[in-house]
Structure formats: C-alpha cells, structure tokens
Design a protein that fits this description.
Layout: E1 22-23, E2 32-33, H1 53-65, H2 78-87
Antiparallel strand pairs: 1-2
Helix pairs in contact: 1-2
The structure holds zinc ion.
Amino acid sequence: MMTASTEVVEKASCRNCGREFIGKPYRFGGGAWFPKTMEAVPVNYFGGYVCSRGCDVQVCLNMLSSMPGAGRATSLDSGCETSVARNWS
Ligand SMILES: [Zn+2]
C-alpha cells in the first residue's frame, strides 16, 4: 500500500485550458508567472488565472452563460470587456 504523502503539489493553472504556471493555485493568492518569460499571469474578471486572451474571453463567456436565468452568452458584458482589454493590452 502506498504511504506517500496525500498532499498534492498544486500549481497555478489556466482556468480555461489548464496550462500550468509558476506559482500556487489562484485560491491561495500570491500571483503566478509564465514559466518562459516570468511575466505575471493575468487574472480573469471572475477570478482565476488565464494564459491568453482567448482563454480569458472563454472563461468570461462560460461564467456569463452559467448565471441564473442567462442564456448562452455570445458576447462579453462591459465588466468583462474592460478586464480583458486591460489584461491583454
Ligand atoms: Zn489557457
């Protein structure tokens, strides 16, 4: 029987595609960085790290679509739009 620690080494990862970054998972705070460039990883409007503009937009659309009474979102609301523009300018 395995007696290895049950503690899982968690990494920061893209909320949309799962790409891993340097740093701890978003809920632990502290920031995350792209492994190659060491640039800070942007945070989505709804929380969570995102690796690209496309992933940022997708997370927003998923979240907007999951809101009570909302249909499937096909465009960003103003809050998301501002956040995406700021993250990837
Ligand atoms: Zn991603």
